[in-house]
Design brief:
- This protein is mainly β.
- It is 2% helix and 40% strand.
- A hairpin with a 5-residue loop joins strand 5 and strand 6.
- It starts with 17 loop residues before the first strand and ends with a strand.
- It binds beta-D-fructofuranose.
Length: 457
Amino acid sequence: LEPEAPFRTSFHFQPPKNWMNDPNGPMYYKGFYHLFYQYNPWGAVWGNLTWGHAVSEDLLHWLDLEPALKGDQWYDVGGVWSGSVTFRLDGTPIILYTGLAEDLEQTQNMAVPDDASDPFLRKWVKSSENPLLRHPDGVYKEDFRDPSTAWQVEDGSWRITIGTQVETDGMALVYKSRDLLHWELEKNVLYTIPGSGMWECLDFYPVAPTGRRGLDTSTRGPSVNHVLKVSSYNDQHDYYAVGSYNEVTQAFTPVNQELGVLYGLQYDYGKFYASKSFYDPVKKRRILWGWSNESDTEAQDIAKGWASLQAIPRTVWLDSELGDNLIQAPIEELKSLRGVKVSKAEVELEAGSILRIEGSYGGQLDIEVTFEYPDVSKVAFKYGRPLDDPFDCSEGGSAQRGVFGPFGLLVMADDALQEQTALFFYISQSKDRQWSTYFCSDQSRLDQLFVGLLCYI
Ligand code: FRU
């Protein structure tokens, strides 16, 4: 860690300085992974957005390049907002992105590589036909953004989905095209949830029925299900559902109706938003990027000179046992960053015990831990929280005792445990007598100035 920049991470993607938000158009091209990202080249606060651009051979070590797209046309002077990359059939990537005009109108636009033989794809040219899409009737001009990667249906035509809200009903519009340039609105939407507000950064992709293999975005077939992900502007979380996609009606139907897209599953319960996945043809996996905006105030960001990071990319695949949810794991490349290994096995945790992991001092730690807990069906509820009391991570933090928990890690701790951040589990039984596992973090005893990292179980 550089002493002058103690909170910059070593593992996560961050541009050298200034503001970053959503990951945009991640892809693999001619030997390099590309990551574009919402970037303000002029400061550490949101605004004046461009497409920042970085390339990497391993998704961990990045070379930051010049922004790929800047707002220089009437339709994007207000900002080059989020979007996606699609590969044409000849293998050339194209960018579809949202432009923000001076009057705040949002339109969808295209850019193509100036020189497709350059593996870095440093220069992009905006289409002379931009804007390709303007908001349809009944949609407010400021509620029409973030085109998805296009997928191909049986007859060879393309589809994209774009998030909007009509009144307060969030929905996924579908557009159709033969040439990726001229788009026509489908009359049916992919999905809608009344009252859910604006939907941002839609992601829509197929998943294989079994195994960890990822599928290219246009993969079709009777055993293929799809994932629809919505970034909810109202509560700033990424929700998803696994479901079936009907190419003819454009309808997406969640496998588990109770897990509709919103109020259903979240990718992550921490700070993880505006995520975007892509198919990695090298390792045949689907990789998910997500933006983590930290908890700093604007004044702190300005003082630091930078703001936010991208979460470690994850491989995602269908949980074939349940069929309605995904399993996620950090990309395997992460292991290559590990240095000194400190391990401890077979530790029995008594109630209230704290065990220091000796030798685990360092600027950044990568921790793998497996907990085994007793058979919950044999628990007598004579102590701890009442049976029917649902657990709330944000209430009382890690200090409250329950039947099974909290147990977990204390990191960023000092010797006296005055300062600590608890990452903990809590297992509780809900009213319907189902067991649930909560994974929480408690930052109430985190000292912003303290940069040591001791680890305890
Ligand atoms: C999501 C978002 C997108 C938009 C971009 C602008 O965080 O609001 O909907 O395109 O950020 O930076």
